[in-house]
From TrEMBL:
<protein>
    <submittedName>
        <fullName>DUF3182 family protein</fullName>
    </submittedName>
</protein>
<dbReference type="Pfam" id="PF11379">
    <property type="entry name" value="DUF3182"/>
</dbReference>
<dbReference type="InterPro" id="IPR021519">
    <property type="entry name" value="DUF3182"/>
</dbReference>
Length: 362
């Protein structure tokens, strides 16, 4: 296969924040080093013809991207799906009924296949369906209302009764729900969130498991605060060979089932970066629950740990395992000892924010 001539950043979301651009530029430069080619900036149609680019999109790509020269997971850091909803948490749950509104390409069989590895919940593409789904879930306790496009846990609401549900649904835009969907899911008490994932870049595959932690942003909201990951050279089988806590092994098994079902149900999907959030906790009725919350086939919060770890594995072919972490700090908080600063500044929307990455031999 012809080597890539350069790495380019591909904007999908539109406007990027300063901190996202700063971190993604560092990651793009690292990817260029690993691939043996330079990072030349944003992709545009004015770039020289004949170049074979390796892409770093800021979101999952949708549809036919062959015109860009993206033919497989070797051509990008992230993923490609046939339909936009496949890239969101909407796919994780079934519809409330066979007659429920849903987008073209929707696979009800996928939701049924992963029913035992996800939390009780429903996806709705209509506010009336969302109301019916919420009513059913509230019989067993509180639920969590989750907009499917939000990231880092933002925009989610805890719903305790029918009145709260109706108030929350009334505040939503019906067209947005019809276009993108809405998730209603059983709420867990003090959930512990595991991360399971795999990346393949420059012919090297790394797999990992670990945990996420939450923090308070400058507005007092509970949001993603970083990840701590145990990474190994190789596929999920190499990861399964490690000694790990029982709950972590269950999370890994559930993520693998979810991933296999997704690739079967949505054959247009391919990805070089796959990440799954798996929550374990207790329902309000006292039942122990563990289930996949969502997938990420795009550059994400854990990607600095993934790519900096990949660099360490490439530099040392004998390396088999290491520990990699990311940190997101709001306000004036000292950096973690031994961490590399990726960004430190004032975001117009989020306020003072710092991002760090740390890689350690185990």
């Amino acid at each position: 296969m012809t080597p890539h001539s350069s790495v380019v950043w591909l904007p999908v979301q539109g406007t990027r924040s300063e901190h996202e651009r700063a971190v993604q530029q560092i990651l793009a430069e690292k990817l260029g080093k690993l691939l043996g080619c330079p990072f030349i900036g944003d992709y545009s149609t004015s770039l020289p013809s004949g170049g074979r680019y390796y892409f770093l999109p800021d979101d999952t790509l949708v549809g036919d991207v062959s015109a860009l020269g993206i033919d497989s997971n070797q051509d990008l850091f992230g993923g490609v799906v046939e339909h936009a909803f496949v890239a969101t948490k909407a796919i994780s749950h079934p519809l409330i009924s066979e007659q429920s509104r849903h987008p073209d390409g929707w696979s009800e069989s996928f939701a049924l296949q992963v029913d035992q590895v996800t939390l009780p919940g429903f996806t709705a593409f209509d506010l009336d369906d969302a109301h019916s789904a919420g009513q059913r879930l509230l019989r067993d306790g509180p639920l969590r209302l989750k907009p499917v496009l939000a990231r880092a846990g933002r925009g989610q609401q805890s719903i305790n009764d029918l009145a709260e549900l109706e108030t929350a649904l009334a505040a939503l835009d019906a067209q947005t729900v019809r276009e993108h969907g809405l998730v209603l899911e059983e709420e867990l008490r003090q959930p512990y969130t595991y991360s399971v994932g795999q990346i393949t870049v420059a012919g090297v595959t790394l797999s990992y498991y670990g945990s996420q932690h939450l923090t308070r942003d400058n507005h007092g909201h509970s949001v993603y605060g970083g990840s701590e990951l145990i990474m190994v050279r190789g596929d999920y089988l190499a990861l399964m060979a490690l000694t790990m806590p029982r709950a972590a092994r269950l999370a890994l098994q559930q993520a693998r089932i979810y991933e296999l079902a997704a690739f079967e149900a949505y054959p247009g999907l391919f990805a070089s970066r796959r990440n799954y959030d798996v929550a374990c906790g207790e329902s309000r009725t006292g039942k122990q629950r563990c289930g996949v919350l969502e997938q990420s086939w795009r550059v994400g919060g854990a990607s600095p740990a993934e790519i900096f770890a990949l660099e360490a594995f490439v530099d040392d072919p004998a390396l088999r395992q290491l520990h990699a972490s990311t940190f997101e700090h709001y306000g004036d908080i000292p950096p973690p000892r031994g961490a590399i600063c990726l960004y430190q500044g004032h975001d117009d929307e989020l306020g003072l924010l710092s991002k760090y990455v740390k890689v350690e031999r185990t």
